[in-house]
Amino acid sequence: xxxxxQYTLGELYSLADQxxxxxxATLARxxxxxxxxxxILGRKAADAVREYKHKYAxxxxxxxxxxxxxxxxxxxxxxxxxxxxxxxxxxxxxxKVRWNxxxxxxxxxxxxxxxxxxxxxxxxxxxxxxxx
Length: 132
Hints:
- The chain has helices at residues 3-6, 9-17, 24-69, 74-81, 83-130.
- The protein is an all-alpha fold.
- Helix 3 packs antiparallel against helix 5.
- The chain is rod-shaped.
């Protein structure tokens, strides 16, 4: 069973924070957990995009309906009809950006830790070679 089904996002971050950067095994485990987090973040980012696009489509539909129904000042009446939808759409767009930023940020942390792991392994290999 994957960690994603056992823990919440916050619990996974707490679990990852418990692993030390001092040893290759613990650092590798931290990278594994952050990779599980990356999957969750990606899904949440995709969900946020879908919600935003649905609200966008709803706003366009309501605008068109109000425009067609209006006898005069069509554009103004249509805009008034979608004010609340525009506000909801803005909130959903902010969520979309926030989740996409979380994906990017987590990816950068993973890449940094992978580099640290590579350096740590090289240092251990050099120390092992020096003691021979």
